[in-house]
Input
Amino acid sequence: MTYDEGLAQRIRERWRTVPEITEKRMFGGVAFLYRGNMAVGVTGEDLMVRVGPARADAALAQPGTRVFDKTGRPMRGWILVDGAAVTEDDTLGVWLDEGRAFAAGLPPK
Output
């Protein structure tokens, strides 16, 4: 599976000054980890965001979102945001902040 390299590049540019961010190929796409914990990723045309179980319902109430389900078993605390919903940099930034905030609350790996 290919992924939206343009979306991945926008994430790289936004986080280029954050030294705790690393990049790793995962899920047929690319993932961005904060202190070793996955925060967001790009799979296909979509942005994958780790919001945590407590924020999942609120995140899923936002436009262009759906449950992250690659295997028929939804991953709790993860959502997909349609690529068309993150064409604006401000909107993308909100989702990146959301994923990074959740990852920041986990112990570094």
